[in-house]
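[Meeting: bench + compute handoff]

Bench side (C.D.) handed over the final construct sequence. Compute side (W.E.) agreed to return the predicted structure before the next meeting so the bench team could plan truncations. Sequence as handed over:
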Amino acid sequence: MGDDSNSGNNSNKSGASSSVSDNDAFGETKFVWNGDVVLSKKRNSEETLYVNPTVST
């Protein structure tokens, strides 16, 4: 608790995107998930986008 980790395990296996937020003394952190893969994290005015470099052909 109190860190940027997803404190609730989001196990959305349907492939649909979902979001989870976590609050601590420094503010709110929002996570966007696609299934069990985190896509982005937003805290205050900073947003981190996670890109999977694996390309299947």
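W.E. noted at the follow-up: The beta strands are 17-24, 27-34, 37-43, 46-49. C.D. will use this when planning the next construct.
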